[in-house]
């Protein structure tokens, strides 16, 4: 049985408080004054001043974060605060959710799956995970872990994806940093991962559908796969309209793509990655996105230094850890909260009690059904012909694939519903429906 042992609820608390705020915002019509205020807020963000001389770049053409410390001391100081989000106290999801061992059986995620660490730990994390230590991987696994690899891909093209992970990983030493979002010009936002730029299609220049301040985050916080021919990191869509779970699954089905065959059933499976951008901007997008909020608005607040300098914090945190945002942004739609942070927190505690339990109950219940589904399909496979699968087994494989895909889409999206509550529950419902249908077919 997949049972959260209490600690998972703690993991979800921050995001689920935000969930409550989003639910409230969903009831707010995106009036012109709110949209205008959001647009004005974005333009009022502090702008970095151009330096007289750009520091020297390394062999990949990347200026390291440490080299910008003198020119941008406040941004650098807050960037280094991300170091605190390290490995200590992080959950091992395979222990916290034992059913994942069955779900991912035969795939590298069954070897190791820890709670995500901070951005400045990304390079060390990919080096140390059992997924790369116990199984030979290609260099494409380094995507988004260091700007040096991003620069290498942009310089060499798809051939950079095809090397061996262990042959290449030790040549990089800069974690996620300034270059990822600015390249070597801190006054500009530049999306370094060109595969994501291509996947946005015509929406790449549409600030309403895909604002640049969200693209810079979305270039790594997205669902992707490795092209079977080129091994290139690739997104399964073109444009935001195709960024829905249904459209992404159809894309994979049309190309007959799978990440692995399940070890017990041999069903062709898909391992979803972190689809935060798709969850927020896919299809009709969320209410907050339509109002005009970007990823940076909520996760990178404006701070004022002792000398009066206003700057954008580069400590990437939950908005619920930002008291200024709670008091001055959330309350624009939550008038009942006034400007009292304590009142906001009290309101959120109520939301955690109700919503977190509902999400936990749904995910646990579906996971239990999914585990039963796998056992039943395995029994049917073992009892059938050793030759080509029967039509019934092929149908069961499809249902297993669907149940896994929809459940995983929610499980690995790091807001646990906060970014798009309606889509979260709708997607879980589709997962459960697929598992129920398979179990019904098997009696």
UniProtKB/TrEMBL annotation:
Pfam annotation, one family: Cytochrom_C552
Chief location of this protein within or outside the cell: other
Source superkingdom: Bacteria
Species whose genome carries this gene: Senegalimassilia anaerobia
Protein name according to UniProt: nitrite reductase (cytochrome; ammonia-forming)
Any single biological process term in GO: anaerobic electron transport chain
Matching InterPro entries: Cyt_c552, Multihaem_cyt_sf
GO molecular function, one term: metal ion binding
Catalytic reaction equation(s): 6 Fe(III)-[cytochrome c] + NH4(+) + 2 H2O = 6 Fe(II)-[cytochrome c] + nitrite + 8 H(+)
One annotated Gene Ontology cellular component of this protein: outer membrane-bounded periplasmic space
EC number assigned by the record: 1.7.2.2
PANTHER family reported in the protein's UniProt record: CYTOCHROME C-552, CYTOCHROME C-552 RESPIRATORY NITRITE REDUCTASE
Leading EC class: oxidoreductase
Family: Belongs to the cytochrome c-552 family.
Matches recorded under PROSITE patterns: PROKAR_LIPOPROTEIN
Signal peptide: 1-29
Intracellular or extracellular location(s): Cell envelope
Entry-linked CDD domains: NrfA-like (cd00548)
Residue ranges of the TM segments: none
